[in-house]
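Lab meeting prep.
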Amino acid sequence: MDIALAQFQPGPDHDANRKRAVEFMERAAEQGAQLIAFAELALHRFFPQHPRDEDAACFAEPIPGPTTELLSEAARRLSLVTVGNLYERDQSGKCFDSSPVIDADGSLLGVTRMVHIAEMKDFHEQAYYHPGDRGAPVYQTRVGRLGVAICYDRHYPEYMRALGVRGAKLVVIPQAGAVGEWPEGLYEAEVRTAAFQNGYFAALCNRVGREDRLTFAGESFVVGPNGTVLAKAARGQDELLLAECDLNLCAESPARRMFWRDRRPELYGSWLA
């Protein structure tokens, strides 16, 4: 199958950003993609770069809600599995960094919520997000089984392994990665390693463009289950990145043929306690 990553810089008009997201979905479908994924907080500014942004609350919405309904309608019309990311507020008033997963018929399969919440210079996420309470779900979509690792969660091998254990053949990573945030090439190497160790495809969709305190790098990419980069977007510019992924190759990966065969899970719990 072909997958698409929508790497674009959002503007100040939220409705215009949502319209643009649908346009990217239409372009992806026209080019033969069966799945599209968006970056972290793709439809508005990255407010966690500030310790306190009093206007951030206006971006929070329920799921289902206006954005997921718009994406679901477009997904149904275009027969496009869609992985979004937005600022979610649940019925109790708690807020999460959340990725709705929408199947190609427009149905909302579920919502992944970011589990690990960062607090560091220009990434003050603990001021806005509660830790996710949905675990590491994997969804059976029309194109295959996929999981989501939202940005900071990708740093945790336990989380990335859990997605593999639950049968994911593709892991989508919505990210807000800035220029100079980590040593050059490190986050790419990290994702390549996770894909290699777990025998799945990984598709990282990053933010792009200059904001108040950060310049987001772009450079979205797709990795195969043998750890090789299959496609990569440009730095610093909007792009719809497409890549071909044959999920049947997961079964032939070193991880599925060897590493997983020789696992000793009965030992690991005591090591990590």
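Slide two material, second protein:
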Amino acid sequence: MKIAVDAMGGDHAPREVVRGAIQAARENGFSLVLVGQEPRIREELSAVDSSGTDIEVVHASEVVEMCDVPGIALRKKRDSSIRVGLSLVADGSAASFVSAGNSGAVMAGGLLILKKIRGVDRPAIAATIPTPHGPVVLIDAGANVGCKPVHLLQFGFMGEAYSRRILGIPRPRVAVVSIGEEDLKGSDLTRETCDLLRNTGLRFVGNAEGRDFFSGKADVFVCDGFVGNVAVKTMEGMAQAFGQFLKAEIAKSSLAKVGAMLAEGAIRSVRKRLDYAEHGGAPLLGVRGGVMICHGSSDRRAIKNAIRAAGSMARFGMDEEISRSIAARGHALT
């Protein structure tokens, strides 16, 4: 298994990307291809111990910046690390691609270079969310804003397959994100999507409200990219705010400080569970080959875990699993 990594993508590239890649190669035994400006990558590799790892470098002279318009950048920067890395997956030189760079360019490149899986009209981002009942999948987390019911139906197929194969949930429960649990609640989009999902054979549990992400009601939450992105960003902000609230309250009294010292292990464990770096990134499902999109601020730990997740997607053949799932339930698409 060989995984291509965008060495130039992210706020801390190439330094943190290279170090995360070395850790992933050493801990998981992956063969990696670092894609980007070779002199800079070689400089970072020479600064650390990469012995015992199978890492090669493929030169790409250009970088898609975060401020670049995705479509224009892909057309004009034909030798960018994103385009070259995705091309390695397209021609079979790599099984998956990992990038903390311009997410819009990665999504556009996935469509342009890797192409869609048969039966998928719109690829979607699947975000893994930690909850007290275990991880759940939210799909779509930001790839598609204007959606039709059939698109959300396909998101349900993809999210269910990802939850089953990658998260190990034998028969995931699927829900549609809405403003109430009752069937009549929500928009035309959510109501029509529910009607479609009921006829699929998936373990559909109906509508779910925002609070249900953490209640254990479902394992896969289906929505359009606008709702999903707002939900994910709100959760990230709340997690940060909770940490700030806790820190402020602890600082108010000596007794609270003692209690915090006694609970230090538990606090550290909770912080780790809420840290996006533990998952590394979110997969772009629905394209041929694995694509993992990371936070622009990813450090070496996030990159390492994203590479590990990309390896799991390749090992389980997620694109083929999604194709099989849709083909088996094709009646629901008509």
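Talking points for slide two:
The mean pLDDT is 90.
Residues 64 and 80 are 6 Å apart (CA to CA).
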